[in-house]
Amino acid sequence: MAATEQTGSRSSTERTGPGRLLYDATVRAIFLQALTAALVVGLFAWLIYNTMVNLQERNLSAGFGFLDVSAGFGISFTLIPYEEGDTYLRVFFVGIANTLLVAAVSIALATIIGLFVGLARLSDNWIVAKLSRAYIELLRNTPLLLQIIAWFFGVFNLLPRPRDSVVMAEAFVLNNRGFYMPAPVPELGFGYVMAAFVVALLGAIALYRWEDARRDRTGKSFPAISTGLAMIVLVPLVVHLALGRPLSWDPPVLQGFNFVGGVSVPPAFCALIVALSAYTSAFIAEIVRSGIQSVSKGQLEAAGALNLPPTWTLRRVILPQALRVIIPPLISQYLNITKNSSLAIAIGFPDLVSVWMNTSLNQSGRAIPIVAMTMAFYCLVSLTVSLVMNSYNRRVQIKER
Amino acid sequence: MALVFESKPDRPPPRDETGLAVWVRRNLFRDVPNALMTLLGFYIAYVVVAAVLDWAIFNAVWEADTRRECLDAVGRSGACWPGVVEWLPNLVYGLYPKDAVWRINLGFLALVLWLIPLWMPRVKSKVAVGLTAVTLYPFLASYFFLGGDKGIVWSALISLGLSGLVWVWATTISERVTGQSIAELLGKTLAGGDNDVLQRRAVRGAGLVLFLAAYGLVSTWSLAEVRTQFWGGLFLTLVISGIGITFSLPAGILLALGRRSNLPVIAVLSTLFIELFRSVPLITILFMFNTMLPLFMPEGMEVNQLARAIVAVCLFAAAYMAEVIRGGLQAIPKGQYEAAASLGLGYWQTTTQVVLPQALKIMIPTIVGNFIGLFKDTTLVSIIGLFDLMNMARAVGEDTDWLGLFIEPFFVVSLTYFVFCFAMSSYSIRLEEKLSAGRER
User: What dotted CATH number matches B61-96+229-441?
Assistant: First the structure.
């Protein structure tokens, strides 16, 4: 860029006369930008004009007034309460909640599977490494939509009827109506258990911090992580037992032709979760592998020369350096999961795109506000994530001297 | 007492460091947990491979007229291939008229012919060949695929495409045989000696003759129109992803340069475009173009559905490609810009001759990764009702003879996608190794 100005201004000193302006870098820059701006503004003006004419023609309005109107259609699965008479605005939030639910569950599963497969890919064991390679290549190289549809029509739709359900441990039920599991029912006093959990969690964090500082100061070590984990598990458990188990479970029970009670999710949800997390786990596995491989061998040798125990080498040498490489692409995979959850529409799971951009749009005909709101949601999500990521990147960047 | 030297017994020889047994011990049975994992791994591999082979080959039905017959013969334990075989033409060509399928084959044959010289040694004009493949081939192909009435302009463009193909092979043969491009060869033989001006005129004349001959040929021959509603299957998938790939690279380069430009208006507009299209899912863009493009266009102007999908895919792909290219541009050290500036190169010279060649080379794996992603993403056009390869596979199960036949066509289609994507990624790895050979220490 600097080059333009230099050559530009040099030329302008050489040339004289009216043609001189043509070679002046500043003039050129202003002219080029004005032209671009004019073209873009013109394009938008033309599009908006056409849209206004078309909307008038079809007696549609572009306003947001329809949001208070009752939507009048049912939604097969809702995370937040919803009834047929609720407004369009409610439908929008139902869609967002469902999208976020799918994203959250898939992110958790994909991370666990991906971490596991990525480590297996680096295994010394030949067959384990080859199997995980096959898993990664097979899933990465076929379209996600195809996988979602295959899981839905090829697996979850072919499950037995409720009467012949697959029942696991008397509590988890799988059939062609969906997946059922016991619902937790909090009773009086469960708040204390939750409070105990929060206190234990804070205590564990404080313990870890204290141990870190003390080790830096004195060199003495103390198993803070295992103690902390034990605290987080045991303290709420003890409170739970002491208060006479204030949490009971409501298992699904077969009644007539279907299961009632418990928490249930439709087959489309299961298919979506399985496909999304399997597909993304292949990408995460590659990210994990490349992150770990990015730690140079010298670092391991240095750790060995210091006689660090293997767990320390992993926690204090490999992980901090590998995570720097792993986290940014990992976050962008999480963003991809959120965006890819929109493929739910192909199997009829009511996510944001399906209930809002499809059903609501077709019913109300308000294309412009609906499309704008959908896009705004996805933009908001990715903007938030990229803000978080930028601040993380700034924090972990190697500080070179 | 004499001190007698007594040698200690020999140390045992080192264990074998090579050989199959050592490899097996080291990589499969190092210790007990490792051995257990090995056994489990082989067991899983065996179960999966055996199940797939049993289903796809040993238990499969190869001859039947309906799915009922298959089910009666083997139930669900074996694949029912006759349905897929019967539908194979549709899976490949969609509903394209059977007697016009040769046009698709010819169109793709032309592409293959156009690209072969790129892999041939001793061909010097590879860049020109590649550029003509991107700029001229589409005219030829789109007429083969679409057909219909052609006016003067349309005929001229098709003739350009045809003469491009002739030029590609003429120059390839001439370069391989004589080491000179066809233009040099023609110039020397027609104008003789070393008169540059005359030679250039002769080459231009020859080009014009070629174009006129092609035009004569094109105007005598016409193809019936095939509406895009009949396009489908692998053909449609390749058309959409092909256009997306060809468009996304140049558009992505421009957007990336725009985003890094120090002209604020251009930088802001490019950034807005890139961030908007990257932060929303492709399906929302497809929906938007599907429902809103008719609203955006002047009254009475129809945009056909395939065109809407292609526009959406192209813009989406361009935004993603822009970020990849920007990554490459950022990796170029400042010294390169300064060196170019000290040579007196202007912005476009610096960009096209110093920065871009390096940036594109670094990003080859990511660019190909993007192409693969785009190829897979074309399946989304099935949601707005186009019959691409995947949607065609679903249609098999709706045929009354093959009602419910789902797994078999999906198996075949998945395999097709896998072969395409895997081939692309393997090729990009090889290309990367070849190009970075000079950098390895």
Answer: 1.10.3720.10
